[in-house]
From TrEMBL:
It comes from the Eukaryota. The chain crosses the membrane at residues 43-63, 70-92, 397-415, 435-453, 465-489. It is a multi-pass membrane protein. The lineage of its organism: Eukaryota, Fungi, Dikarya, Ascomycota, Pezizomycotina. GO terms for molecular function: glycosyltransferase activity. This is Glycosyltransferase family 2 protein. Residues 214-448 form the Glycosyltransferase 2-like domain. GO terms for cellular component: membrane. It is found in: Membrane. Keywords: Glycosyltransferase, Membrane, Transferase, Transmembrane, Transmembrane helix. It comes from Amniculicola lignicola CBS 123094.
Length: 504
């Protein structure tokens, strides 16, 4: 323990004083209520999750064999359902993938002549949304790329740079605003009093720009030069489409092992799960970036700044009123994955809590009736309602099932510690005869899903990455479930800090 030092103030030169006065800082001045509140807010979720794991593991250690058998059967059945749903989505994604490839082949054969003449294209506002302190190193590069590389008639598109910053960053801000002098289709807007992406977007929605469509991109994205054209063609071909969500691809997969795993995960999500779910359940979702909206719909809905994942909330609100969202695999965009585990952890915790918020808010879609004057004939059928139940409730509940299974296995290891790898395998997977079949079927489902993912993998993902991803997939599931629990714990204590991901 260090010795405290006196803080002395020499006031001998001050008129009326000839001696030194001594003052000491008090703990009450150093440890404020705000510090305590921040500490509790940051560490209470951690304590809750650790307590959950310890309590659950200890509980299983004292359960009877019959009770353990019941729990084991429930968890294996649940695992089978999740694996089965995943592989069904994967198989359902085969048709959209084939159609996307067919359209590209036809475009190549025609010399990349798109169906719609340039003069008949819709007017597009493409938004690049940035938080400068975190994205100051990449915003100029992304802005120049969008202004120079996107292949769309310049009289039909505006590239809008929307940014907010708590402090002035020069000469960057001046250089950004100078882009409007060099490029006729550039618009740079510093959003006043903004503290979030939602604030930036809502401010833009108040501006009358005359556009037919609005595309939203995070600052770390490189849209494919033809992505806007593919999206607009989709709107023109189907007048009922309200939102087109494109495919996001991680392009820094070679940076670290973590980024390579995220790259495989994104291929699995955007090229397999999203289009497969849309085909299976009958609805798609806007995912936050590389998404195109009809301007009238987006201006009316806006973004809810009280939601941590305002993009998922807006997607569910759009679906709740009957808006049609489609996933187009030709509308591609390339983005950065977090390169460090702390950055990944912060990002996924924010997503987990945001999904928990959105799930609680929109679970009512399972049973209520859509009320929207723009879609008076829309009615959610049983398939769509069950899809909502699976997406919002079963998915959130699966975090507990996966972690409970993990705690059950830990209790086995503690009580019946295996002496060999064979004993460990038997202990973990084959405690009961039915487990063998459920486990084998789940493994087959996983292999089938990853095989389909391999067929549609991006140019930045190798077969080796997919194999490594499949090997560590059980650990990834436990990590994802733990992050989900952490997000729930944060929601319980009303954690509201926004932790943006730094981009370099």
């Amino acid at each position: 323990m260090t010795e405290s030092k006196d803080f002395t103030i020499d006031i001998g030169e001050v008129p009326g004083y000839t001696e030194k006065e001594t003052s000491k800082p008090s703990w009450t001045s150093l440890v404020t209520a705000e510090n305590i509140s921040g500490f509790l807010s940051d560490w209470t979720p951690f304590a809750l999750v650790v307590s959950y794991y310890v309590f659950s593991t200890c509980l299983y250690m004292y359960c009877s064999e019959r009770t353990i058998a019941i729990f084991w059967f429930i968890y294996m059945i649940t695992n089978f359902y999740i694996a089965g749903s995943t592989v069904l989505e994967a198989f359902m994604s085969i048709t959209p993938c084939r159609e996307a490839r067919k359209i590209v082949t036809q475009a190549e054969e025609k010399g990349w002549l798109f169906p719609t003449a340039n003069n008949d294209l819709l007017i597009l506002d493409l938004l690049i949304v940035a938080y400068l302190p975190n994205e100051k190193d990449i915003i100029m590069d992304r802005a120049l790329y969008a202004l120079e590389q996107i292949d769309y008639p310049r009289d039909k598109i505006r590239i809008n740079i929307l940014y907010n910053t708590p402090k002035s960053i020069e000469p960057l801000e001046t250089q950004l605003h100078e882009l409007t002098e060099r490029y006729s289709h550039a618009r740079v807007i510093k959003v006043p009093n903004s503290t979030s992406k939602a604030d930036n977007l809502n401010y833009f929605f108040t501006l009358e720009t005359g556009s037919d469509l609005i595309a939203i991109y995070d600052c770390d994205h490189y849209p494919h030069p033809n992505a806007p054209r593919w999206a607009v063609e989709r709107f023109i071909a189907d007048k009922e489409v309200d939102i087109v969500q494109g495919r996001c691809i991680v392009f820094n997969s070679e940076d670290t092992f973590l980024t390579s795993m995220i790259a495989v995960e994104f291929d699995k999500i955007y090229a397999v799960s999203h289009p497969g779910r849309a085909a299976m359940w009958g609805f798609g979702l806007f995912c936050g970036s590389n998404g195109y909206w009809r301007t009238s719909l987006l201006r009316e809905m806006k973004m809810d700044g009280d939601m941590l994942t305002e993009d998922i909330d807006s997607a569910l609100r759009a679906f709740s009123r009957g808006s049609k969202t489609v996933h187009d695999l030709n509308v591609t965009s390339y983005e950065l994955a977090p390169t460090t585990f702390p950055a990944f952890w912060k990002q996924r915790l924010r997503w987990a809590q945001g999904w928990a918020q959105a799930s609680m808010k929109h679970l009512k879609m399972v049973y209520n009736k859509p009320m929207d004057p723009l879609h008076p004939k829309y009615s959610r059928d049983f398939t769509a309602r069950f899809g909502v139940l699976s997406l919002l409730l079963i998915r959130e509940f699966s975090y507990y099932l996966v972690t409970q299974y993990t705690c059950l296995v830990l209790s086995f290891v503690i009580v019946k510690f295996p002496r060999s790898g064979t004993e460990l395998g038997k202990l973990v997977y084959f405690q009961y005869p039915v487990s063998q079949w459920l486990f084998i079927i789940s493994i087959i489902c996983l292999i089938a899903t990853l095989w389909i993912t391999n067929q549609v993998k991006s140019e930045f993902v190798s077969r080796r990455m997919i194999i490594l991803f499949s090997i560590q997939y059980p650990f990834y599931l436990v990590l994802s479930a733990t992050i989900g629990l952490y997000g729930h714990a944060r929601q319980v204590i009303r954690y509201s800090s926004w932790n943006p991901t730094a981009r370099t």
